[in-house]
Amino acid sequence: MEVSLQKDPKVRISYDEMEAYLLLPTPAYEVPYKMDEVMDIIKLAGVKIGINEAKIAAMIEDCYYDRECVIARGITPVNGVDAYFEYHFDPNLNKKPTRREDGTVDYWSIHSVELVEEGQVIATYNEPVDGSNGMTVKGKLLIAKRGRPLPPLTGKGFERSEDNKTYTSTMEGKIEMQNGRILISQVHEVHGDVGLKTGNIDFRGDVIIHGNVPTGAVIRATGSVTIDGNIEGCLIDASKDVIIRGGMLGGGRGIIKTRGSLHAKFLEYGTVKADGQIVTDSVINCDIICNDKVYLEGKHASVVGGIIHAAGGVEAYNFGNEYGVKTEIYVGVNMEVKKEINFHENCIKESQDIIEKINIGLKQFDEAVKAGIPIDPNDNRKASLLRTKIVKQADLATHTQSLNRMSEVLRVAQGASVKVIRNVYNGVIIGINDAIVTIKEDQSTVAFFEKNNKVVMFSMKDEIA
Questions:
Q1: Pick from 258, 213, 216: nearest CA to 239
Q2: How many domains are there within the chain?
Q3: What was the pLDDT predicted at 103?
Q4: Residue 210 vs residues 110, 181, 327, 386: alpha-carbon distances, Å
Q5: Hey, which of 17-21, 109-113, 364-368 has the most confident mean pLDDT?
Q6: Strand pairing partners for 142?
Q7: Are residues 102 and 192 in the same domain?
Q8: Which of 130, 142, 159, 188 is deepest in the core (most CB within 10 A)?
Q9: What is the arithmetic mean of pLDDT over 435-445?
Q10: Residue 162: CB partners within 8 Å, gap ≥ 6?
Q11: How many angstroms separate the CA atoms of 446 and 429, rounded?
């Protein structure tokens, strides 16, 4: 009986089933392979999709034996592209100054306000792109990821086109992104110095002054205040950030108040109160209260004279000078802050107790009405209770807000320190929480912390080196 030595073609499928390989063993007696027989073997192996018959025919014709060759490829799925918005403004403004290579600070690099004009396109919606499904060589469907649409933008001061693709400003003003919403609000812009023509400014929104602010002027804003020049003995009062690209020449009369942060080239002979950080190049004879940190940056970052109270800490190159100008630096939380916190806590408890008693009284009136007990029309006790409740609720909200603010100060003040990059001179007073020390000898490159209710000094020379 004659035994056939002919070997069958071998089909191998990759682990992901995206490729199929064919191997033709050298045939016995040089008997050529037949195309239809090879195709039957390939299909018997389960290969259905992407078969390259021309490649198989070439293998047979060219006697491509004992080596694998790719003869089928699956269809790779193409994922869709999610929809996205293209913003025609900067949604992430740079609110910090840039340090130049020479060590100076560029306050013009601060970008806290971006302006738009009425009719300006502020955003464009790009539709999602559908993907295409794929398939393995065995015919298994591979589902592509679909491109996801996005909901329309929300906010105020703009409108969108009928096709929901183009967003256009409906007013001239300041544009910003807040918690995913676009807000366009009014801006008061002064092209030049503040003076008799402009008068004092009291504006609900942001104020931009492309000039200087002289002594005696008053600027109040519920938003931010940006001043391109210098300010003198004036009052600046803002609910958000204050940016002075020049500096403050207060003459003992200048006052800056901000519930945000303050950036200024220099601060001289003025009073400053800020809830946020203060960043400046130098401070000379100022009275500063900061509920965050005070950073002095630049080549000559010094504090000379005056008093700084900064809950989060103070960092500078120099404190005081060789002439012994009295300079006081206090950080952390002192006893006065603790007393204020205790005061608000007591007021909150008192208001809550009174409101609870009022609610009991009002409930008694309601129960009397339900029970059919006649009420004298001239009896104004219920109205009096309601008026008192409204007053106490307002007091409760005010003291709660103040307590929350002071609690944030406590958080910021944890681990507060005073850091000196170069020199702290003899006579400078350093206070941390309730501990105070007067520097007796000039020191350099040191940091001051509180330990066991005392101010202790550590060298930073290894840190700075």
A1: 258
A2: 4
A3: 62
A4: 15, 28, 34, 50
A5: 17-21
A6: 134
A7: no
A8: 188
A9: 91
A10: none
A11: 14
Angle subtended by helix axes 335-370 and 381-413, to nearest 10: 150
Name the CA radius of gyration of the chain, rounded. Answer: 38
**336-355: per-residue pLDDT in tens?**
777 888 898 899 999 899 99
Contacts 24+ apart (CB under 8 A), 145-152: 145/77, 145/79, 145/80, 146/80, 147/79, 147/80, 147/81, 147/82, 147/83, 148/80, 148/82, 148/83, 149/83, 150/82, 150/83, 150/84, 150/85, 150/125, 152/125
For residue range 96-112, list pLDDT tens digits in order: 666 666 666 665 555 56
Determine, yes or no, domain membership for 3: no
| Bridge partners of residue 219, in order along the sequence | 201, 236
pLDDT at 310: 93
Report yes or no: 241 and 261 within 8 Å, Cβ to Cβ.
Answer: yes
Question: Is-contact 48 40, C-beta < 8 A?
Answer: no
422 in the same domain as 324:
yes
Are 284 and 268 in contact, with CB atoms under 8 Å apart?
A: yes
> Could you tell me if 102 and 151 lie in one domain?
yes
Say what the alpha-carbon torsion angle 401, 403, 405, 406 is, to the nearest 10 degrees. Answer: 160
Tokens of 168: 């256009």
Lowest mean pLDDT among 36-50, 97-111, 176-190: 97-111
* Dist. CA 430–CA 432, nearest whole Å: 7
User: Which pLDDT value is given to residue 189?
Assistant: 85
Structure confidence at residue 279 (pLDDT): 94
| Domain carrying residue 107 | 84-130+145-185
pLDDT number for residue 19: 95
Residues 285 and 212 in one domain: yes
| 234 in the same domain as 173 | no
